[in-house]
Design brief:
With about 325 residues, this protein is mainly beta. It has 5 helices and 21 strands.
Length: about 325
């Protein structure tokens, strides 16, 4: 719930805008992929291409060398690099691509889909988030101000030989504004510096101090554990939906304040980001006095439990006698 309106939003990782693909494609001029058995050897082939802005012709993304290694007939049709470079896609491949299937990518940016009353609204994340591909994604209130923030695990090294590795990220923390927009934090502010190929990331208050902590894994390198030192401690929330669901997976929790306003909705999930699992114990930040905690169970029933002043942790168990139907 990135804008605090009670509707669950989506954070979508992508390839980013710092690669040979450049991220400059539009809905009219998309990055395209054709796939099929173009050389008739029983193996699926893939051809990446786009429309050249100068000539207006469709041209391949890959060069003659790697294309010929995959499909030797390309080298026979295009004897030299010069010939290959001067030709359009149809001249290079002939008629074989007509039998293939096509998929398109219009947007390579990472971004959010905000869930509004009239449907989803797309917003790209700031340019600092677009410097590398994203794998792990975590939503949490990292500073305890009652507004959801983001963490992105970044980078991808396993490129083709002719392509530089995508290593422009160091792990990025983005501070939420409460509107679905975010301010990126420099490593000197967040304390996060991870130069490797980051993959899975997960959040938990592992030392139970009311501040959400972060763990990030890497391919072929060390796992990083970051202990949160500067956040304002929040309310630790545990939910028990019964013997079959003791951690309340599928429930949603939300703080209600004494002035009648509500905080962001936080879902309890059984999986998060890239092959990861966040803690089921939630940490909810707040700036205003809290009146009660609202739990929406997976079947739509709602339980409200008062939160006394100075309470640091609360546990809510499913009770059919006190759970009210959702209005």
């Amino acid at each position: 719930d990135l804008d605090g309106d009670g509707r669950l939003d989506i954070v979508a990782g992508n390839w980013g805008n710092n690669s040979k693909y450049e991220g400059a494609y539009t809905f009219q001029e998309a990055l395209r992929i054709s796939y099929g058995d173009f050389d008739e050897n029983g193996v699926l082939d893939i051809v990446e291409y786009h429309r050249d802005v100068l000539t207006g012709e469709l041209v391949p993304e890959r060069g003659r060398s790697c294309t010929t290694r995959a499909m030797p007939f390309i080298g026979l049709r295009n004897e030299t690099f010069n010939i290959f470079g001067e030709r359009s896609l149809s001249q290079i491949y002939g008629e074989c691509l007509k039998d293939g299937s096509i998929v398109e990518a219009n947007i390579l940016s990472h971004g959010v889909f905000l869930n509004k009353s009239k449907g989803m609204i797309w917003r790209p994340l700031p340019i600092q988030a677009q410097l590398a591909p994203v794998f792990g994604i975590n939503v949490a209130d990292f500073d305890g101000d009652g507004i959801e923030d983001l963490f992105l695990a970044q980078n991808f090294f396993a490129q083709q030989r002719e392509t530089p590795r995508s290593d422009g990220g160091r792990g990025l923390l983005l501070k939420g504004k409460g509107t679905g927009e975010f301010n990126p934090m420099a490593g000197a502010q967040s304390g996060i510096f991870i130069y490797g190929e980051q993959r899975g990331s997960a959040i938990a208050d592992y030392n139970q101090d009311g501040k959400i902590d972060l763990v990030v894994t890497q391919n072929g390198s060390l796992t990083h554990l970051y202990r949160n030192q500067k956040a304002k401690p929040g309310l630790r929330v545990k939910v028990n939906a019964g013997p079959a669901n003791p951690t309340g997976v599928g429930a949603q929790v939300r703080l209600v304040f004494t002035d009648g306003t509500k905080g962001a909705v936080r879902p309890i999930t059984a999986g998060s980001g890239y092959w990861s699992q966040d803690s089921a114990t939630q940490v909810l930040g707040y700036k205003k006095p809290v009146q009660h905690l609202e739990v929406r169970w997976p079947d739509g029933q709602i339980t409200r439990k008062s939160v006394e002043k100075e309470v640091k942790e609360i546990t809510v168990e499913r009770d059919s006698k006190t759970a009210a139907p959702l209005n």
